[in-house]
Each structure stands twice: as C-alpha cells, then as structure tokens.
Amino acid sequence: MPYDGRGGHWNRVVLAVEIPLVLLAISTVALRVYSRLTIKRRLAVDDILIICGCACALARTVISCMSADDGFGYDARGRPDRPGEVTYYQHIFERRIAYIFAVSFTRFSVLAYYLRIFPPGLITLRRWCWVLLALALAQFTEVLTVLLVSCRDIGKLWTGHWQDFAGSMCFTSASYSYSAAIGDSVLDSMIFALPIPYVWRLSRVKTSQRIGLVVIFALGFIVCVVALLQIPFIRRRETKPTYFGGAINMLIAIQISLAIVAASLPDLRALLARSFPHFSPLHHRSLNNNPRSGTRDVEEATAENEEERSRRRSNLRKPDWMRSSIPASLLSTTITRDDASMNMPQSRPPMVCRNPSVIFPWATKTETVSTLGIENIQFLDGQPGRRPSLAPGQQAPIAAIRRPSLAEVLNCSAALTPPVPGIALPAPACTSAANSLIPNTTLVQRPANAKRRRSNIHNPKLNKASAGWRATTQPAGLPGSALLIGGTAGCLLAHRLSHAQSRPSVLLVEAGTKPEGDFLLEPFHRYTPAFLRPDLNWGYESVPQKALNGRSIAYARGKGLGGSSIMNFSVYLYGSKEDYDRWAELVGDDTWKWEHTKETFKRIENFDVSGAKEYAHVASPDPAQHGHDGTVKVGLPAKLEKGTLSALDAIHKNGEALNLDFNSGDPMGFGVFPATYSESGRTTSANAHLTNPPANLTIWTGAAVHRLKLEGAKVVGIEAADGRKAKSRKEVILCGGTIDTPKILLLNGIGPASELEAFGIPVVKDLPGVGKQLRDHLMTFLVVEVDATHNDKYALESNQNMILEAAALWNKDKTGPFSLHHSNLWGAFLKLPGIEDSPEFKSLDQDVQDFLRRDTVPHCELAGNALLFPPGTTLPEGSGYLSMVAFLMNPQSTGSITLRSANPEDSPVIDLGFMEHAYDKRAMRETVRLVWQKVFENPDIKKDIKKPIYGPESLSDEDIDTFNKDAVSTVWHANGSVVMGKKDNAMACVDANFRVYGIEGLRVADVSVCPVTTNNHTQSTAYLVGQKAADKLIAEYGL
Prior knowledge:
By secondary structure, the protein is an alpha/beta fold. Helix content is 38%, strand content 12%. It is built from 32 helices and 29 strands. The model is unreliable at 1-7 and 268-480 (pLDDT under 50). Belongs to the GMC oxidoreductase family.
C-alpha cells in the first residue's frame, strides 16, 4: 500500500541538529579564510577547495529547510502519484548531489593541504597523498555514477511528465548507500590517519601538544564513525519501504559539518595566537616564532610598549599551527630510519685535519698569533671599557699542531676542495684570546652569561648592512644610522658609510670572530687558510654533481671579519671591460659601464706597481691607470719566484702574447697576476677597512643573526641568536655572499613561493629568482714533476728545518722565504681555438655568442705556480713540481641555493650544476688540452719535465672527459644567486640600485647580484659591488 503523510515534525528535528552544525562549519571556514588573508594575503588551493565544500554543505542545508514541509510517499509502482510529492523527490536528489560534492571537496582540501605543507623530502607521505587523492577521485566518480545510473530518468521530475518517472526506488539503492557510507569511512580514516606516525615521532613535542594533536585527529575519526553509523539505517530502509531515512539525513549532516571543522581547525591556531600570544598549545616549541617568550632582559622590559607592538605584529604573520609544527619540525628533528632522515642530506660535519703536513708539508709545529694587522680594539664583552691584554703589535704563541702518522690522512677527491672526510685540525688556542683587533672601534662580543635563544629564523652567517639602526639590547641605547654584518663587500661598505660626510653611526655585525692565528698573513700561506683553518670556514658542501661522477664539492666560505677575503687566493683582477658593458646593458644602468667602473676600481685600490721594475718586460702596469689612495693594498711582488720568469719567457718565445697589465680592461695574454699582498702580508677587507675607523663605527662579533624583522613587506631590523636586536630607520643591506644571502632571504619568506610553502615559511614576497641562476668558474689542476733546477719551491716545503727558519724570519721582520714563495701567480686569459665553430657554441643564445666573440672576452684562464696536487704527493730527491690550474670562463651551466629545512641552523642545499651544459663540457675539454699544450708541451719547459703527476691519460677527447669528471671542481667564485636585473626580467631579484624587488627597506650588496660571471677572480668584484652600493646610498640619502 502506498504510504501518505507529512514529514514536517521529523524534518524539523533533523534541521534542529543540522543547522547549528553547518553554522559551526561555516564559522570555522570563515575564520580560516580571515586568518589566511590576514597572514598570507592570499588563499591557497586547499583554502579554495574547503570554501567550495562549505558552500555545498550550506546548499544541502538550504535544500533541507526547503523540504521541511514536503509530502512524501509513492504508489505501488514506485513513483510519485500526486503533484505534492514531486518536490520531495527533487529535494532528495538535490541533497544527495550536494552531499557528494561537499564531502569530496573537503577530502580534496585536506589532501591538498598535506601536499602543500609536507616537504618533498617526505617521499612516502607525499606518495600516499597522491594515492589517496586518486582514491578520493575514484570514490567521487563511483558514487556519483551509481546515483545517476539509478536515477537515470530523474530529469522528468522537473517536467510536465513527472508521472512517467519510475525510479523512486533509486533512493533506496543499496549500491549507492553502502558505497557512499563505507567508502567515506574507509577513505576518511586513511586521510586523517596519514600524518599521525610522522607527527607522533617528533622528539620535542610536549605532552600537552600531543593531546592537542589527538583532539584534532580524533575529530576526523568521529567523521568516519558517523559514516559507519548509517549502515543500520540503510539496512532498515532496504527492508521497510515506508522508511525514508530521516536518521541517515541527520548523520550525513553531522558527517559533513565535522569533516569541514576538522579540515579547517589547524588554521585557527594563528588566529588564537594573534589575540592570545602566549597561548599556542599546538605550536612546536622548537620553532617558536616569538623569541620574547620566557625570561626577558631588563633592557627589553624598558621598551615594553614598542616591543609589544612589534611582537603583536609578528604574531599576525605566524603561519597556521600545522605548517609550523609538522613539516618544519620533521626537518629539524631526528626521525630514525624514515623518509625524513634517509632522503634529506644532513648538515656537513666540521672539517678537521689530523695531518696538515700531508696537505701542506710546510705546516709548522709552532707559529705565532697574527691578527691580520688589525690592532688596538676596544672590547665590550660584558665589561665595557676593558682593554685587551696584548699590546699593539704584540704576538702570542699558540698551541702546537698535532702531526700524526700518514695513516691518519684524509680521503680527498682529485679536485681543489678542502679535504672532506678525515681532515682534522684542532681549533687554534689563539681564537679564545682577547687580542687587539681594531683601533678606536667598539667591538661587542656576546656576553658570557647571555643565554643563546632559538627562534624561527636563524642564519649562522648573515652579512648585511642597513641604514638607520639602533640596538634594543646589548649595548643598551646604541644609536645608529647604518648596520652592516661582515663580508668582503660589507666591510668596505661599513667603512664608506661611516666615513661619509654626515658621519652616520654604523653598526657592523659578524657571526664569526676576528681572524687571528696561523696561516693568515704570509704569502707562503696563500692557500693554507681555506684548508687548515676550519674555525674560519663555514665548510659548506654541494650535493652530488651529476656530471662529475656524483662527487660532492666542498665549498669554503670565510667565517670572520672580512668574509672570504681572509682565505681566498688573493688574486686581484678586474676582468674584461666587456663584462661591465654587458652588466650595464642587462640591468639598464650606464654607471656599470667600463668607463665608469674603471674609475670605481681606482677609488678602491692602493696599487703598488714598483715591484715590477725588475721584470718590466713581462709586467708593467701604468701607474696613471690605477688608484693609489684606496684602502685595498694591491701590488706585484718585488721579486719573482724561481721558474716564473723562465716560464713566461719560454711561452713568449713560442709566439704567445704578453699582457703587461691585466687590469687594463683587456685581460688577454700571458703575464704576472697582481694580488692583495703587500710588505706586511695579506690584505683582507677587515684590515683594509676596519683599521683606524672613526668613533661612529661599532662592531658586534659572535652575532649570528636569527632573522630579519618585518612589518608587512618592509624590513625594519634584525635579531641575533643571542638576543641582540637592532632596528632600522631606513634600510637593511645583505652582504652575506652567494650562498648565505639567498638563504636568509628564503628563511624570511622572500623567494619562490612553492619552495617556501614546502617548509611552512610564510611568503612575504614571491621572488622566483632567489637562489637560482648560480654560476661559478670551473677549474682543475694539471701537475707535472720537474727537475729541481726548474724551481726551488718543493725544496723548501719538504724541509722542516727550512720551514722553521723561514717562519722565524717572517715573524721577525716580514722577510725571508715566506715572503717569496707562493707570493706570485703567473698565467693567462685565452681564446679557445675552434670553439666558435662547434655545435655547442652555436647552440647558445645569439647574445651570448656575440658576447663571447668580443676580442677582450676570454674563453679560459690558466694560472701557474700553484700548489702541489693531489695532497700528500711526495717527490724524490732532485725533483720539484710545476702546477697549473685550468679555468673555464663564462660557464653556461647554472646551479641553485635552496633550503634544507626551515631550521636556520641547517646548511643550505648547494647544487652547483657543474658541467651540465653541453658547452661547458666541450669548453672545459678544450681548456685542459690548451693549457697542457701551451705549457707542458712548450719545448723550453718540456725539457725539465720528468713525468705527469696529475692530468688526463692522453689528450684525446675521451681521456680528457674521463679526467674532468673526476677532477673538475671549484675555485669558489660562485655568483648570481640573487641576480640584479630589469624589472621585466622574471628572475631578477634586485634592481640596479641593489633594492630587493617588492620589499621596502632591503638591499643586497655582494656578488650574489652579479648578472655576469666576470672574467676574473671575484674578490675584486666583491669590492666593486660594495663600493657601487656605497656610492648609490651616499648619493640617495645625501650622507
């Protein structure tokens, strides 16, 4: 018998449950949207999906309200038999469509959220996300298909032929009901359970935080249980035709609403933190974004009002709890034997050198402390006014270097890299001494009792400068107009700004210490600091290079005042004049053209050309073309090492052109390279620019900077790891170098949005070029054994008594063998014959081809008089060595700097991309062949050669390529990772005035901005960038 009646009472009971739950779901979604727009200023894909799911749930509730007074029933044939029943069946169908889309959109939102917040390193989790996404799509398709097939003539209900509808029984279809209920339960349980094993193993999640996580995921499991509770009512509907499933309707409403709440709840933590900054029960404490929580300094309390406002603004930018807690924590917390630990490279261990004599046989047992010529510093290390114990110029002995047996030696690849596994050198005792550093300069070290804090952004090496600073902690009340943090370019920039006519006060911040101790001044130790001073080296390492047989390349970067100038190889070359004309063209600023740039170089240098008088036929720079009033001491040695002049004469005799001045704008030809050495030893950016500074220069050392302080898209200050802070009234200028500058930008939300979101870092500015476009000169050693009459370098290096005598002479009056050996490099910049006709060259962009064809643009470089390689090589009595280095200029391969995690203490991921471009492979092959032929095949040199030590088996293409895969490495000239360019260049990060695009108050001034890999050794380029930045800032602000 047909059933006839009114369902209004039961429908109202269902609505009394459904409407409040839907309103709760709408509220959570609205708060989520508000939170996201407030913090990120844009919505992600998962936000759009959850909004769609909520809209479908609301539509279903509206339909339920419309059907509250519907009549229902059907005749014996299973169809509506009265017009009043038609709307009831219409509403049932519409509700089911809305239900299917609501649960599907919510499911897709959760999975999209997982894919957004979990980093690529969690391979298994991300794969499961994709699998579940496919299953969710399949389940959506299956349920919708079953419903449409069962109700295939449903469209007749909206026409005048409603009596022909014969499918009312489709609403009691077992296939649809069971597939929907069981499918929802199984799929949702898998989705909500997916992150639990990863989150639960986080080592630093508090018990209260675990309880919070349980609450979140338990809500998801309630959704699954509610779906299963529908099954008894489905079975009842199968056996009782008059039962139309009112309880099922109510359970579905509960299921949808709770699913939306569970999907939206994580984003509400940021909103809670904004109003209740100390309440963050689900926030991982190791990533606390509010360094002011906990014990506060007295100085901080005195600035409560201003700091409180700043802290609250910071809270507005906090990410949602799951992005902060789960993905970033997985990267900063050890998870044993899972995807996170197995797929993510670990931070490089400290470099150690158990046997320095194997790498440098001349490494002596005892040396004296040398302070790079920087003296008379006033220390402020918690005791203002305290003077160092050593008098100006006084030297202190350091601990002897342990020299174990040969069995304790390194495992070194055949490349110019610091010996990687197994090199060990104890940190010199001198580094703990409070020796004099900078005359009349305030140096502030971290107080001994200062508690080191951990914040969400920390960079162990950040070199930056900023105009308009004052310190809010130690030392209290420091006034400031400019802040700079270390680095080769940064020290010069600090000097120029502090000496500007308006005398703005300057704060120089350095994460490392003052460079002092062994190997830092003597020309003899030109190469030594990079290998045997790990205390002054950040010790980076690249990822395995695909084109180099999977080798990782160790990447030395200076850790101390002066940056990498304390350990580079001291060559000082401008490059080609075409480099700067192309630079000007790429950035749209004529001040970068050669005619202006050469004048800038003059203002940087104090060029001593007098040393070349004894060998003027191979080196004779015109004094009028060089500067003599600058701060960087540059020159040519007063005497050439034995073998240098004979080699150049032999090469010139064989028809090669000589270059009497490599810094004329035309580097082509052979000659003697100038260097940043003088009678007093190595010139660094520290002793060139921090000696005798004005009283308006203050220095912080040991101040590893945690983060840039942001107000929206404006940088207003920095915070150091030990709690020291500085606020900027004008600008912050990063001078951290090609590796660390992009790292600090990325950690602070400036860079490619997809990379930042993968680590849960709020996106402040989407700049796709940050960390990209990295280029570097390629190099390899080529070494032969020669007769001892060719040169006497090895005779000194292999004789310990001679080394000790030479050290004593140097320490006495800066004379003797230490002032001569390794004091000069000779070399050449050359074109590669036939390279322009090769298919690899012709495949380059036309503008690149045109640039490489210019007369003064070299394809390669060679440098002679280098060190003995490989490390540990011993030669028989009566033998010496001739060591050449072959360089590829203008490489076309590009690499990248990316984050390893959101933990700022982790080193960045460095992918150099060496030899991945076909042109580089071809050109490097031809470079090795050319260097070998022009030097070792030269008749006058070849007569002294006994045998090869390091090089290819032959000069065939195959043997050279095989050798290069095992031998090619870096000379540490990386540049371009925060490239300067015009605004219409999608990869440009800074403009011609060093301003970061889209960020107010932030500039970058180091070689990371270079749009051209200059044809030189990039020390001079770093100085140039610092000088150009100083000129522009002084002019812009009228300093």
